[in-house]
Amino acid sequence: MHAMTDGSGVAEARQGSRWRFYRAVWRWHFYAGLLVLPFIIWLAVTGAAFLYQGAIDRSVHHDLKVVPVGDTRMPAQQLVAAAQQRYGGSLFVYITPKRADASAEIGLVDAHGARRVVYVDPYRARVLGALPEHGTLSWTIRRLHSLALVGPYARGLIEMAGGWAIVLVLTGVYLWWPRGRRGVVISVRGKPKQRLFWRDLHAVTGAGGGAILLFLALTGMPWSWLWGAQVNRWANGHDFGYPAGLRVQQPMSQQRLADSGEPAWSLRQARLPESVLPARLAEGGDEPLHGEHANGLQLGNEYSGHTARTVAPGHADHEEHEEHEEHIAQSEQSAQHAHSADSAHAANGDAGGVAGPGRGAIGLDAAIARFDARGILPGYSVAPPRGATGVYTATVYPADLQRQRVIHLDQYSGTVLLDMRYRDYGPLAKLLEWGINVHLGQQYGTANQLILLFACLAIVLLCVSAAVMWWKRRPSGGLGVPPLPADPRTLRGLLVLLVLCGLIFPLVGLSFVLMWVLDRYWMQRTQADAAAG
């Protein structure tokens, strides 16, 4: 009988200890929700819209994005000339049409540094209109989702929200887990007027979508201010990101890929290779062909084989003469288009501080021909060379990670200096890029989008149910913070969890410390009020 009494006492002590730890976890789960619920619901709503950014843009900007399909597309330089004739400025990016009915997008910068994107019908060289750079609705959604409109420190808020979301999920799983009970809550009991209904709804939704929320919080961290930037530098410095082998094989400039567009996360630190100056330019000798004049001649000499016709031996000389005359006419026509573009560039100077290609560059049309010959996916962006040693750069980051591509061409010879794909990334970069691509709803097509859409809806439901549950539980005139256990030793396990999370994500750890200090202050104030009463 005495043994039974001792056993029951131990069981009661253990049960009491578990309940005290439960209250400690509940308290920090409450704090986490209090801090990040507004951010999480914001990220969920804007994230759901971001999943369908392509369709949104084609619908909202249909007059700019969609064109009637024609027979043959005009040369890119001719489209650029049409855009410059309407708006002026210098080219900083050319985006090839992604689909047969898509317009070409031409980025121009004026003398004051203002950037705009001009949309041109690629079949008719007709200017459809223009928007400021990043002026589409999808870019607005993207800026809203990243909190970029808040200011330069918005990514710090994202980092803290992501870290606290991780705490929310882990503590929420503990609160939901059955401790000594049979089964778990997998159905919703009660009625909407009762707190039990909202508690069960919150628990069931969290159990169903918690893993996805944890995944989204972790894969969103690469965009964060402190953790994301430091991991990116570390990964690149230890050959886990941008592979060192591709850096040392070519002389690299101080220009970065991020300066000419939106690179993949793993390529934020990537520098551009340098073009090799022709001997006559390096020595200041004979004046080379100017700008796009080289484009027409090189296209004629190098690519004439693509249009060669099969002729009978008896007519070879006659056909050769006709092809020669046709080639000269085409070269002169290309040179005229190039001359007008060069004149516009000379008139604008290095608009907005963007240096143009060197004298004798192969030109945009020849560069695009070379990129196409490499099999790059349509819809890629072309950044022209910046300065005499700059390069033509093509980048594309499609939904399929395996088809990500970055190609750099020597601006004078057209030689491929670097051709990098997803398979060339380091192991950490591959893992993070995969996570980012899934986070964006791109990696697995429609299924990926639908799962994340469900997750966004679940997150909204979690936030709403949490708010209603708290409102029904809170005391009149009070915040309703869950009580802290009397024995401080109960907090040790929870403290270990918070410290580990804080060490991995330092900015989040700092917010933990601040929250801990506030919690101590709140406790002392509550105890003082109780003593005074």
From TrEMBL:
Q: Does the keyword Transmembrane apply?
A: yes
- Biased-composition ranges, Basic and acidic residues, are 315-329
* Ranges for region Disordered: 307-353
Q: Where are the transmembrane segments?
A: 28-52, 157-177, 197-218, 450-471, 491-518
Q: Which domain of life is it from?
A: Bacteria
The record's listing under InterPro entries reads:
PepSY (IPR025711), PepSY-ass_TM (IPR005625)
Q: Where is the composition biased (Low complexity)?
A: 330-349
Q: Name one Pfam family in it.
A: PepSY
Keywords for the protein's UniProt record, in alphabetical order: Membrane, Transmembrane, Transmembrane helix
Per the database record, which ranges form the PepSY domain? 74-129
What this protein is called in its record is PepSY domain-containing protein
